[in-house]
Amino acid sequence: MENPNYLEIYHKLYKYYGPQAWWPASSTLEMLLGSILVQRTNWRNVEKALERLEENVHDANYLYQIEERELAEKIRPSGFYRIKAARIKAFIAWFRNYNYDVSLVQGIPYNKLRAELLSIKGIGEETADVMLLYAFEKQAFIADQYAFRIFNRIGLEIPSTYRSLQKIVEKDIPNDNQLYQEYHALLVEHAKVHCKVKPICNTCPVQSICEFGWKKEESFRG
């Protein structure tokens, strides 16, 4: 079995699951908040936290002025709420430097913007790249735990670090923002539906190109 390329994997996932149309948010600011709130929790808890912010989820100036302790109580359902409140406040303070203007931030070159985001306390590589991709229209492959799990099982020779995997995938796929968004969402969906910690291989859309799936099938055949 020949090793597939990353674009082939994308096409197989897209054909099976269809368009995912991420990120689920009604404003760019809500999306940015969600990228911080989702750290170390599931999306259901993020939605509960966002609901408690009500219309203020779209008001950057409100988030700048609110006391950190009060913000923490509002986002309590997301877990680690005190830590996340501090991270949101730090991000909003940075965003204020650009008058909360998404278009201004989008005009910053990729490398400079990524470095600025990573300089914000509590914003790591994955969160920064989610912001870059979904809010600021910069192509950034999200090399999260699901990507590592899926690509490892398929049998690809991949590096051990986030940034190295990101660069390898980005060389193999078109420079298209929508494709990057769909690929990230499709990998998350695939990891939840088929490529779980205990994978479901018999109906997997990439089984034909997956080393783990082939070995599992051969073991059943004896």
Q: What would you say this structure looks like, in words?
A:
The protein has 222 residues and is an all-alpha fold. It folds into 2 domains: 95 residues, Helix-hairpin-Helix base-excision DNA repair enzymes (C-terminal) (Endonuclease Iii, domain 2), CATH 1.10.1670.10; 107 residues, Hypothetical protein, domain 2 (Endonuclease III, domain 1, Orthogonal Bundle). It is 61% helix and 0% strand. The chain is built from 13 helices and no strands. The longest helix is centred in the C-terminal third of the chain and has 17 residues. The chain is globular and about 65 Å long. The two termini are 19 Å apart.
Strand-helix topology:
Blueprint: H1 6-17, H2 28-37, H3 43-53, H4 60-65, H5 68-74, H6 81-96, H7 102-106, H8 110-118, H9 125-134, H10 145-154, H11 162-172, H12 177-193, H13 211-221
Total helix count? 13
Name the structural class: mainly alpha
Largest sheet: none
Instruction: State the order of secondary-structure elements, H for helix, E for strand.
Output: HHHHHHHHHHHHH
Main features:
about 220 residues, mainly alpha, Endonuclease Iii, domain 2, Endonuclease III, domain 1, 13 helices, about 60% helix, about 0% strand, globular
What's the gist of this structure?
By secondary structure, the protein is mainly alpha-helical. About 60% of the residues lie in helices and about 0% in strands.
